[in-house]
Amino acid sequence: MCSNAYYIKNKTIEEHSLTLTEFRKHFNVSRETISYLTLYESLLKKWNQKTNLVSKNSLDDAWGRHFLDSAQLVKHCQPENKLWLDFGSGAGFPGVVSAIILRDRGINTNFVLVEKNKTKAFFLGELKRRLDLSLDIICENIKEIDPLKADIISARAFSHLENLLPVSNYHGKEKSVSLFLKGKNIREELDKTFKMWFFQYDIISSISSIDGKIIKINKLHKL
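Structure (tokenized):
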């Protein structure tokens, strides 16, 4: 059993691995989208046998630890958001999952995934092909590419907030929103940023983990 708690229709399911059925009820996506997500899970498990995309233990609860954790970000995307930048994309969380669900909802947001690890970038390319996704994959260091002026910027398990904000500032624009999946120490991370940065933020409880948080940032600029 896992130690996560999932919030499904206002009920907390303790000590429970999320099932595909519960995921579908929570997000109410089409059968076609579920088939794509199921294929994604299959590819992830197959590739993870040969290369370290995610921790092996986390695959016992892939629908909770990875798919639900990623999918919870899509509600923060508006139809007018044209470009979503996900950096340190790794195995595609949260970028690929978000792209799949937004496609299901008819929201035509373009995705750019930046991953400097060649093996992981190749896996992202395989996902793009097999899941019939229209997105761009850049296999470079996020700090070494031209500014993308993204509407939404996301990252998961990439670095501390003090290292994420310069990336958001460089690749964002005036009305950009940054969405970072963080843990219980987010307050400590925030305290280290206030001397150098001004921004508005909300801390949102994750639906995939008791200790998990989403920090939503806008109006970012350097002091």
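The two ends are 46 Å apart (CA to CA). The CA atoms of residues 161 and 189 lie 6 Å apart.
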